């Protein structure tokens, strides 16, 4: 039984593993890039010579947008992987 499990893991790695890992690395890099861009945009907003309310609204809007983008990217990151917690609770 243990050998069958090991063989299945090897087959999975050969057929799916590299593609999933490459996609995962690209999505993580994209998330890091988007976070850096959002940070720079927030710094520009902070340095702007406008009222505090306008700055606060602009920062809040940017943070909400960034959170939405990160949530979408994390969904892409987890696509194709089995969540072990869900499979264990169904048993």
Question: How would you characterize the overall build of this protein?
Answer:
- By secondary structure, the chain is mainly α.
- The chain has one domain.
- The protein has helices at residues 2-47, 52-78, 84-90.
- The longest helix is centred in the N-terminal third of the chain and has 46 residues, at 2-47.
Question: How would you sum up this structure in a few lines?
Answer:
The chain is mainly α and about 90 residues long. It contains three helices and no strands.
Q: What's the number of helices? A: 3
Domain count: the total is 1
Mean pLDDT: 80
Computed over alpha carbons, the radius of gyration is 21 Å
What structural category do the secondary elements indicate?
mainly alpha
Which series of helices and strands comes N to C? HHH
Number of DSSP strands?
A: 0
Helix fraction, binned, reads over 70%
β-strand amount = under 5%
- Poorly predicted ranges (pLDDT <50, ≥5 residues)? 86-91
Major sheet summary line: none
Distance between the termini: 19 Å
Shape: rod-shaped
